[in-house]
Inverse folding.
C-alpha cells in the first residue's frame, strides 16, 4: 500500500473518530440535561402532591378543632410521592423558616446547610404554627448526579465501548497491513539475496570449468587440483544454502520431526571446518578448534546439526571485515553438550540482538556492503536448537565480535 494512501486512511479515521467523540460528548450532555429536567419535573410533581395532601390532612373540618402539624409524617410522605414519580432517591427533608433563617424541622441536623442552600424548596405553612413568617419544605439530594448517570450510563457505556472496538479493529488492521508490507519487503529481499547467493557459486564454478578447459592449466596437476577444489567448495556451499532454505521451509510445518541418532559432533565440526579451508586461505584467515567435550557423541539429527555448524562458521566469516579469526570449541557443562562459535568480526548491536533469530532479519552492516546472505541462517539455527530441546544464546559487542553458545542434551 502506498504511503499517501495510508496517510489518507489514517486521516479519515482520525477525523471520523474525533467527530464521533464530539457527537458522543454532545449527546451525553444533552442526555444529562434531559434527565435533569425530567428529574426536576418529577420532584416538582411529587412535592405538589405532598403539599396538597398535607394541606388536606391539616385543614380542620367544620366539626373538628385545628391540630398541630405532624412532622413525623413528612419524611414518609415525601419519599412515597417521589417514588410514585419515578425517583427512588430518599432526600434529606426539612421545614425551613425563611424569615428567621432557621429550621422548624430537619430529618438530619447535620445536613441543614445543604437543606438551606437547596434549590428544591416549596411554600408551605403548617397548620398549628401561628406565625406570619414564610415557611418552606426543602429537600437535599446528595446523589442527584448518580441518579442522572444511572439513567443514561448504559447508553454512554455502549457508545464508548463500540467506539473502542472500532478503534481497536482499525489499529489491528493497520498493524496487519504494516506487518504484511514488511513481510512482502523481506520476501522480496530474500528472493534477491537468494538469487545472488546461488548465482555467485554458479559463476565461480563456471569460471573454474572454463579454466580447466585450458590445456596449459589442465596439464598442471597443482592448478587442476586447485580448481577442482574450488568447484567442490562452491558446490558444497550451494548445497548448504539450498538445504538451509528447504529445511527452514519444512520447519514451518508444525508436524515437522527430526531424525535423531547417535552422532559424533567433533567429526561433524572437523568435516565442516575443512570445507572452509580455501575460503579462509583466500582471506588470510584462520579457524581454530578446541574440541574438549567428552563424550562428543550426542543424540541429534546429523543433517541439521551439520548445517547448524556450517551456518555459524559461515556467519562469522561473512561478518569479519579483516582476516577472519574463528574459534569453535566444545565442552560438557552441567551435564549438557556446549558448542561455542566465536569470531572477531564487526559484532552485533543490542537492538539487532533482539531480532537476530527472526526469519528474514538481516543485521545492519553499516558501511560494509560485501556481506551476503538472505536472513534465514540464524533463524534456521535457532529452530534446529529448539527441535533438539537445546538453548542458544548470543554474546556480542560492536567492534568486538560475537559468540554463539549452544547447549544440547546428551540424550
Amino acid at each position: 500500500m502506498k504511503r499517501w494512501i495510508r496517510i489518507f486512511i489514517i486521516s479519515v479515521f482520525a477525523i471520523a473518530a474525533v467527530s464521533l467523540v464530539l457527537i458522543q460528548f454532545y449527546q451525553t450532555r444533552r442526555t444529562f440535561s434531559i434527565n435533569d429536567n425530567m428529574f426536576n419535573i418529577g420532584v416538582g410533581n411529587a412535592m405538589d402532591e405532598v403539599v396538597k395532601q398535607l394541606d388536606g390532612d391539616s385543614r380542620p373540618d367544620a366539626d373538628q378543632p385545628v391540630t398541630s402539624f405532624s412532622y413525623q409524617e413528612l419524611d414518609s410522605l415525601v419519599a412515597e410521592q417521589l417514588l410514585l414519580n419515578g425517583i427512588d432517591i430518599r432526600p434529606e427533608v426539612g421545614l425551613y423558616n425563611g424569615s428567621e433563617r432557621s429550621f422548624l424541622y430537619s430529618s438530619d441536623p447535620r445536613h441543614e446547610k445543604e437543606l438551606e442552600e437547596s434549590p428544591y424548596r416549596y411554600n408551605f405553612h403548617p397548620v398549628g404554627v401561628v406565625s406570619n413568617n414564610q415557611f418552606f419544605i426543602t429537600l437535599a439530594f446528595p446523589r442527584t448526579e448518580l441518579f442522572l448517570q444511572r439513567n443514561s450510563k448504559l447508553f454512554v457505556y455502549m457508545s464508548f465501548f463500540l467506539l473502542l472496538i472500532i478503534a481497536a479493529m482499525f489499529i489491528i488492521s493497520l498493524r496487519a497491513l504494516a506487518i504484511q508490507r514488511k513481510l512482502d519487503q523481506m520476501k522480496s529481499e530474500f528472493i534477491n539475496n537468494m538469487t545472488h547467493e546461488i548465482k555467485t557459486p554458479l559463476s565461480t564454478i563456471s569460471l573454474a570449468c572454463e579454466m580447466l578447459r585450458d590445456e596449459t592449466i589442465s596439464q598442471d596437476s597443482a592448478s587442476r587440483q586447485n580448481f577442482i577444489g574450488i568447484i567442490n567448495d562452491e558446490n558444497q556451499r550451494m548445497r548448504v544454502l539450498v538445504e538451509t532454505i528447504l529445511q527452514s521451509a519444512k520447519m514451518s510445518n508444525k508436524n515437522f520431526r527430526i531424525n535423531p541418532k547417535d552422532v559424533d559432533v567433533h567429526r561433524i565440526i572437523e568435516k565442516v571446518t575443512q570445507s572452509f579451508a580455501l575460503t579462509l586461505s583466500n582471506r588470510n584467515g584462520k579457524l581454530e578448534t578446541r574440541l574438549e567435550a567428552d563424550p562428543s557423541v550426542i543424540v541429534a539429527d546429523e543433517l541439521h546439526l551439520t548445517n547448524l555448524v556450517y551456518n555459524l562458521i559461515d556467519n562469522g566469516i561473512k561478518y569479519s571485515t579483516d582476516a577472519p579469526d574463528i574459534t569453535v570449541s566444545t565442552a560438557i557443562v552441567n551435564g549438557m553438550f556446549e558448542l561455542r562459535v566465536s569470531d572477531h568480526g564487526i559484532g552485533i548491536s543490542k537492538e539487532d540482538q533482539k531480532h537476530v533469530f527472526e526469519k528474514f532479519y538481516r543485521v545492519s552492516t553499516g558501511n560494509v556492503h560485501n556481506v551476503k546472505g538472505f536472513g534465514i541462517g540464524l533463524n534456521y539455527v535457532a529452530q534446529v536448537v529448539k527441535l533438539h530441546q537445546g538453548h542458544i544464546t548470543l554474546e556480542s559487542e560492536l567492534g568486538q565480535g560475537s559468540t554463539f553458545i549452544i547447549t544440547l542434551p546428551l540424550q
